[in-house]
Amino acid sequence: MTFSEFFSLFNQTRHQGNEVYAAILYAQAVFETTANGKPFSSNLCVNYRNLFGMRPSQKREKFYQGVYQTPNNGEFAEYANHLNSLLDRIDLDEYNKTPIPTNISQAEGYMKTVLQKGYAPEAHYLPSWMSVFNRVINGEEFGAFDNSLDDSIEAPEGNDENVRKTSKFIPIVLIAVGVFLLFRYGKPILRKIPVIGRLF
After folding, report:
1. CA 94, 97, 98, 100: dihedral to nearest 10 degrees?
2. Per-residue model confidence as pLDDT tens digits over 118-148
3. Which end of the chain is least crowded, N or C, by CB within 10 Å?
């Protein structure tokens, strides 16, 4: 999906003509739907028309038609078309009373506000989103394979498998396993350390 195609969808919303807001959301859609370096090719995008990794909401107007359940019990919204996905994303901003940007200087502040309101916790999200946005306003299109997106934006398939929800527990599990192995098999070594040796 090129920016021109996205902007045609965007102009069917109440924010028609706001190119800055459209470019920001397009950049986020590129970020969210990139899989293996190819924008708009993630499972959520291709099979469920979900451009933004949105989850089903019970509190806002319902734009989705169903719920996609991941193998790890994560839930994502399924839409009838990409326009409904875009309308849902815009509705989230309006529900959260997020100020809508109208010029480029407001872009980064808008992105920070969206993330602060709970959109995504990943530290890499803001710089990656901002990076794609800068490329969009400089005239780049993201309708085809792009090697430069491989390492910087590989977030969407993680969203499909609910990685956002589980990745924060991985370090805890690794530390626990490491401590267990150390105390189970490393006692001879630990006994040689004066302070720790007293524990054995």
Report:
1. 60
2. 998 888 999 999 999 999 999 887 764 444 4
3. C
Please state, in angstroms and rounded to a whole number, the distance separating the CA atoms of residues 116 and 134.
21
> Which helix H or strand E contains 88, and what residues bound it?
helix 82-95
What residues does each domain of the chain span?
3-161, 167-200
Say if CB 13 and CB 87 are below 8 A apart.
yes
How far is CA 101 from each of CA 84, 116, 143, 155, 188, rounded to the nearest angstrom? 21, 16, 24, 24, 62
pTM flag (> 0.90): no
- Token pair, residue 107, equals 């872009």
Q: Cβ atoms within 10 A of the Cβ of 17, count?
A: 9
CATH topology for 3-161? Lysozyme (1.10.530)
Give the residue carrying structure tokens 């509705």. 91
- Residue 69 is classified by DSSP as E
Q: What is the pLDDT of residues 76-89, one digit of tens each?
A: 999 999 999 999 99
Is the alpha carbon torsion for 115, 45, 86, 59 positive or negative?
A: negative
